[in-house]
């Protein structure tokens, strides 16, 4: 081989190696972001146990009339979703996109309802609805973690179970849920 051929082949090999490195770095970053988003969902699932107990104590305080104003259960953070979801979205299949959409849509509803809790007149309805949303969040996170091939909205039985748990919660603490509102408010 001549010096020219050696130079061209070295240049070509260097270019190919550089492109392969860039592609591998890109997919490594996507993999790490997907793993971080998955970990955020796991963290949400852990937080739901705390929120359920927090909502129980809020309902108990509300029922006994011992509070002036009503404490809020607090918002659920979605830092990784807000920062990285747009980058990860093209690398998710249709079911995963729907599952994450359901999960984070339910979180958005929960946060909005929790923020409105101090301003609404029918606080017992809101407390029950927050409990129902918490139950739904447990299920949406379970769908993601277990890598199920369906979404929560396709599972009518689970949605009914979430509503029934919210009604049992309301009955336990003497709250009056608006059953029509609780049944109709899904994601």
Summary tags:
187 residues, mainly alpha, 75% helix, 0% strand, disordered C terminus
Largest sheet: none
In round numbers, the mean pLDDT is: 87
> What portion of residues is helical?
over 70%
Order of helices and strands: HHHHHH
Name the overall outline.
Answer: elongated
Taking all Cα atoms into account, the compactness measure Rg is 24 Å
* Poorly predicted runs: 180-187
Number of domains: 1
Q: Helices and strands: which structural class?
A: mainly alpha
Counting DSSP E segments of at least 2 residues, the number of strands comes to 0
Per DSSP, what share of the residues sits in E-state strands of 2 or more residues?
under 5%
Distance between the termini: 68 Å
Number of helices: 6
Molecular structure report:
Helices cover 75% and strands 0% of the residues. The chain has 187 residues and is mainly alpha-helical. The protein has one domain. Helix 1 (3-64) runs antiparallel to helix 2, helix 1 runs antiparallel to helix 4 (123-145) and helix 3 runs antiparallel to helix 4. The model is unreliable at 180-187 (pLDDT under 50).
Question: What's a quick, concise take on this entry?
Answer:
The chain contains 6 helices and no strands. By secondary structure, it is mostly helical.
Write the layout of secondary structure elements.
Elements: H1 3-64, H2 79-88, H3 94-116, H4 123-145, H5 156-172, H6 179-184
Helix pairs in contact: 1-2, 1-4, 3-4, 4-5
């Amino acid at each position: 081989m001549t010096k020219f051929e050696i130079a061209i082949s070295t240049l070509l090999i260097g270019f190919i190696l550089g492109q392969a490195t860039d592609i591998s770095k890109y997919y490594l970053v996507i993999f790490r972001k997907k793993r971080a988003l998955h970990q955020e969902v796991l963290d949400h699932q852990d937080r739901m146990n705390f929120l359920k107990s927090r909502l129980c104590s809020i309902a108990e305080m509300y029922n006994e009339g011992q509070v002036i104003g009503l404490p809020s259960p607090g918002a659920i953070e979605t830092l990784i979703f807000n920062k990285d979801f747009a980058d990860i979205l093209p690398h998710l299949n249709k079911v995963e996109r729907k599952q994450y959409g359901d999960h984070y849509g339910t979180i958005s509803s929960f946060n909005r309802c929790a923020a409105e809790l101090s301003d609404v007149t029918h606080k017992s309805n809101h407390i029950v609805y927050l409990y129902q949303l918490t139950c739904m969040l447990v299920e949406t996170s379970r769908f993601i973690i277990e890598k199920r091939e369906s979404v929560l909205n396709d599972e009518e039985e689970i949605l009914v179970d979430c509503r029934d748990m919210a009604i049992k919660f309301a009955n336990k603490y003497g709250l009056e849920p608006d059953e029509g509102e609780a049944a109709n408010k899904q994601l």
